[in-house]
C-alpha cells in the first residue's frame, strides 16, 4: 500500500505559506527554506524583535513546535528582523511559572510580538499579557483570554485550526486506499483540543469511506503515554503490540510521539499517518499526513502586526480551515504514497467540504472520547 521511491525532504511549511491566502494574503512574500535559517542568531544591539515560546517537547520536533517556529524564522528572514526562541524550564514538566518566565525573558529581550505555541500557555499568557499591554502576543492553538478582572485581552490573538477537517481527509483517504484496521494515538492525555479534533475527524472520515465501500473498520483509540507529547519506550511497545495483532496503520497525533510510532511501524511492516506538517521525509512508513498551516498561519498573524491591523485578530477567536486553504493532505508526488486513492478523489472530497456538502463535527467528550453517534461502520476500541 505504499510506493517504493526515493523520498527527499520537503519544505511543506514554506509551500503552504505560498498557497495559503487566509483571506488577507494572496501569497506570502518570498519562499525561504527554513532549514537554511539558523535557529539562533545574535542581534547587533542584543535585542530580539520576534520571539517564540515553545510548547512542551522539542523545538525541532518535526511537528507542532517546528512548524510554528519555521513561520517565525521565515518572516524574520524575509524582513531582516532579529528573532529568538525561548523554551520554558523543566521540559515536559514545565509549570505556568516556567512558561511565564520564558515569556518575560522574551519581553525583556525586546520582543514586539511573542508567538506562544500550545493551549497550555493560557495561564502564563494571561499573566504576561496583562502586565505588558503594549506587547502583542499570538496564541497558536489558543482562544481569547481575559485578565484577572474579566476584561478581554486584546493584545492576544488566538489562532486555531479546524483539525477535524484535516483528520477527516486522512481517515477517508486511508480507508479508501484499503486500510481497515486503524489506530490513533493522541497527545495531551485527551485534554488537548487540537488532538481531540484530529482524532474525531479521523474517525468520521473513516466512517464515510467505509460506508462508501460497504466495509467495516476497526479503530483502536488511545491517549496512553501521550500526556507529554514525547517519544517513549512504553508508547512504542504498545503500538508494536497493535501492529502485531492486526493494526495496519496508526495516526500519530502528538509531536515527538511520532518517533515511537514510526519506529514501531518500521519494525512491524506497519504504516503511519503523520500530523501537523508533512512527515513523509521522516519515515518511509508514512502514507500521508493530516496537516495544518502552522508556518503560514504564524506568518500571517505576524504580517497583520506589521501591517498595523493586529486589532483585527486581538481578542478574536480565529479558526482556520479548508475555506482558508489552511488544512489538508500533502499532494506532492513524493508525499502521496497511496496505491489506489488518487489526488483527484482527494480534491473532490476537499471541494465537498468547502461547499458544505460534507460537514464534519468537532465535538469531543471528557477525556478525549469521541461522540460516536452515526459511526455505524467504524468500531472503536478505547485503549
SSE pattern, N- to C-terminal = HEHEHEHEEHEHEHEHEEHEEHE
Count of helical stretches: 10
Structural class designation: alpha/beta
What strand line-up does the widest sheet have?
A: 12-10-9-8-6-7-13
- How many E strands? 13
Secondary structure layout plus pairing:
Blueprint lengths: L11 H8 L30 E4 L10 H16 L3 E4 L9 H13 L4 E5 L4 H10 L4 E5 L15 E6 L1 H14 L4 E6 L6 H21 L3 E6 L10 H12 L4 E5 L3 H11 L3 E6 L9 E7 L1 H14 L10 E3 L6 E2 L14 H13 L22 E5 L1
Parallel strand pairs: 1-2, 1-3, 3-4, 4-5, 5-11, 6-7, 6-8, 7-13, 8-9, 9-10
Antiparallel strand pairs: 10-12
Helix pairs in contact: 1-9, 2-9, 3-4, 5-6, 7-8
Give an account of the 3D structure.
The protein has helices at 12-19, 64-79, 96-108, 122-131, 163-176, 193-213, 233-244, 257-267, 294-307, 343-355; strands spanning 50-53, 83-86, 113-117, 136-140, 156-161, 181-186, 217-222, 249-253, 271-276, 286-292, 318-320, 327-328, 378-382. It has 383 residues and is α/β, with parallel strands linked by helices. It has a 7-stranded mixed β-sheet with strand order 12-10-9-8-6-7-13, with helices on both faces. A 6-stranded parallel β-sheet has the order 2-1-3-4-5-11, sandwiched between helices. Helix 3 packs parallel to helix 4. The two termini are 26 Å apart.
